[in-house]
């Protein structure tokens, strides 16, 4: 019989203590530091013990206070996806090669069904409206193509973006916004503004593979901090690391609809995270690419909303919500604005004006919000259909996230299955997925896959999911 991993043995030890009454509801669990000393375990193991207890519904993390025993939920439900600990630091050597090999294999293949995309299907985007706005802009300004654009971007678009931020209780001035070539350039600019080669940058684990490529290309050291599907980055682990000997120059997080987890960080966690980073002089870079796709009546707050020291750099993108081909994003860099503006001018100059005019004309009308409501409703239905099919066709023991918005599902396969093996087998049949291996520099997500739900459910998609299920069962 296989021996359970150490973190699970310790979690069972505390579960037995709770069930027997030795530890009672409302009592405080030993801190992570004390648990490390008491059981002679690593930080990674101590963090995973707490997460295992959270998954059993018996532990509650209270900001600035610690972990407390709570009454477990009585309603039955699926066990949340569990993620292994990830806390080692090191130079990111090889992640670009790993990601590139996956992307190149996909480009060479004939893909019939693409589950690797984070975009919506073309028919879900307002393409006709954007095209009409472009034609109108060309008619109104005969000199669009014979004049250069501002480094910071079109003023009308920056004004629209600043006004929209008011709905999430975030005050940004248009003058402090820089339009970029998507969120990728925005994050590149943020990192170049606040770090130097060799600095340490913390990221959530897992995280978007494109971010890992950026970090390696800038020769930055990377610290992976575990994140969960229900609350995002693990704050006690981060706090412990911030107090450690290694200076963390910046932290990059995706608090609203994390890619790939789909997690949404609670407001209490957001406020605490912003304060923690300010206290330790760690620049907080917020990636809000998916924020507009969240299924809530009221917009979610940003980390920037809780910022009192101008320590948060806000980055966002319009590619996922409007049209991938536009490649429009933006950054509000706070006290680093002047440096970001100069870096933008040095690297790529201003973004072309035509797409900015077309987007600002649409986003400045009530039609944009109506479009977003329709899109969110459609995506909710697609995620539910995809999730149901995965549970029907994939092997027993498969677990799937249930995000409150967006186009992505994070799927945990039974431990014996290989997501990279599934990637290659599926690609040979014209089906593309994103293997979990590329969302971390370590081999911690080898049995995870990211599945995109941006296309309306169809017999073709259903058949492709059945095929994935058969391939997985053949691995057993």
From TrEMBL:
CDD domains: AAT_like, WHTH_GntR. Keywords: Aminotransferase, DNA-binding, Pyridoxal phosphate, Transcription, Transcription regulation, Transferase. Signal peptide: none annotated. One of its GO terms (molecular function) is DNA binding. Residues 4-72 form the HTH gntR-type domain. InterPro entries: Aminotransferase_I/II_large, HTH_trans_reg/aminotransferase, PyrdxlP-dep_Trfase, PyrdxlP-dep_Trfase_major, PyrdxlP-dep_Trfase_small, Tscrpt_reg_HTH_GntR, WH-like_DNA-bd_sf, WH_DNA-bd_sf. PROSITE patterns: HTH_GNTR. In the C-terminal section; belongs to the class-I pyridoxal-phosphate-dependent aminotransferase family. This is PLP-dependent aminotransferase family protein. It comes from Pseudomonas umsongensis.
